[in-house]
Amino acid sequence: MNIKKSILLRVRIAFLMVLLFCMGIFYRIIKVQYVEGAEWKALAQTIGMKVMKVDATRGNIYSDNGSLLATSLPYYRVAFDPSLPDDRLYESNIDSLSYLLAGFYKDMSQTAYKRKIDEARKNKRQYLMLSRKEIGYQDKKKIENWPIFREGRLRGGVIFEKVEKRILPFSHLGYRTIGTVNDENRGVVGLEYSFNRQLAGKNGQMLYQKMSGGGWKPVYDGTETRPVDGYDVETTIDINIQDIAESALYRALVSHQADYGTVVVMEVKTGEIKAMSNLSRNPEGKYYERYNYAVGSQGSREPGSTFKLASMIALLEDTNLNLDDTIDTGNGELNFFEEVMRDHKPGGYGVLTLKEVFENSSNIGIAKLVTRHFNKDPQRFIDYLYDMGLSQPIGFQMVGEGKPYIKTPADSSWSGTSLPWMSHGYELKMTPLQTLTLYNAVANNGKMIQPIIVKSIRKADKVVEEFKTKTLNSAICSKSTLKKMQIMLEGVVEQGTAKNINNTKYKVAGKTGTAKTVINGKYTNQYYTSFAGYFPAEQPRYSCIVVIDDPKGFQIYGSDVSAPVFKEIADKIYATEMDLHNATLVKNRDFTGIFPVVRSGNRDDLTLICNELGISNHSDESAAPWVKTDIVNNSIFWKSNAISHQIVPDVRGMTLRDALYVLENNGLEVEVYGHGRVVGQSLNPGSKISSIKKIRISLG
Question: What domains are defined for the chain?
Fold first, then answer.
């Protein structure tokens, strides 16, 4: 009996404990549900809330004529809250919606889409991503009119998540110069990186609430901060010249199977970069824009013979040498201590004038001249290079400019061979853009200016910040030295190492360069070829540098590899820009004497004037509205001056008003020089009007 009582007692105690525990749970449920319910609901909402970033719209990048180089376009991902549509709306339209989704995305069948949405609705999910595929604005407008979705966000449950994508309208044209952005909408390289602060704008923030299904919806509680969109960047890039330069460079790289190449085209007076292209070969042999060799530190190389321009300037500034002074370059080989210097021509050039040394790019000639005049004080030679501004970066607007390296006698690596080797472009480093800046200074009458690639920062039509040309050196040398250098640079193309690119239409001035590449501290038989110069040489408009690294095959020199690329670019720019043409005006050779003063014009106007002045004038019945004058027995006889569509009119002898009327009505763009009557025109009368619809008329 004691055992039975003991067991019953234990059972009762256990029962009471379970009862008390259940009562405690019940009490807690009542308290949480009714007493503390509001507090816990508020806490639950707080836990499901999150302040998230709202991306600003990135600014655009424009070319010099307003063409878009980079822009951000809105794309959308489509999600769905299947819990929002009522049963009637849902049941009557879900089949049609599933059919349209399957036909549009083509990633699942109609049945699979319906099953996916039905399951989400059954589980009361408030967020369902229908597809990860991003759609454009026009597709968004179309989807907004689909069944269920046409009821809108609150009744139909459709959710369009905006995603901005960076678009390059000209595809890979100037790709590395323009640059790219990452997933966080930040610039990674190029102008996108260098001007990220201006382009990126300022992100906003907003409170979001997490929904069933994993999505987030915005909560407009008045605390949100609107994003500030980025500014636009206006560049100096000319799309046409960029296309010309990039295409010419690409063809040369493919032809020579080179490692990489770069081209920069700059406007002489303004320093504006009109084209910048950098192409590298990948392991598959394809060329693409990987690195900006024109500007960056990887492009800082020993320039080779293009540096002879700086050496010759130093020589002419320090001595009384004339262009016809001579130097014996010997048989093409010369020992400098333990090193042997060679000229390109087997057997050597023998005796050369100073001008011929430069035109033929004689390493021995320039080295003997430099060592003869600077060997006792090599620092004086270095000082000239410093005075020209070659020792410091040019301060280009893009981040990552390579720093030039000019060795001095104070360097531990300086030796007896340093001066002669530096004289023809070794034992120093410069980027292609830094070399071009020097050549541009020669074209610009000695004034060295800082190249620029961005003209302004804009907000719509308002200029926020403007960039203007800075003068780096008002005069790199004396006027007499400058004139001699210009003559020698023209001579390189006319009868020197670049005579293969000489032409009769316009003059080119420039210098070829070929340097051996250093690998593991030793010079190899891989070559770094270049050509730097400007055109037209008489009135320089553009300067340009072409660099092609490690060309394969039998053509390995700057004259054979880089110079033809320069010529192709220059020829095409010259052909498309009429104001570069030194056109010979068609003169008024038909007219003699000074009577009458007006030689051509509208017949009615001229007849009225003659009648008012009492001048005898006549015409035949076939005379057209526009006429020329002829003299018959001291009287004026009107001859027909037919004006035909797509045929260049003859406006010689007309007043400016009449000439402009006739030419512009025939679709020609007119440039006027001088004052008075038209005495000459650049396009021959009667010739067919070509695609270049510009004409120059001279008044006198």
Answer: 56-235 (3.90.1310.10), 242-580 (3.40.710.10), 586-699 (3.30.10.20)
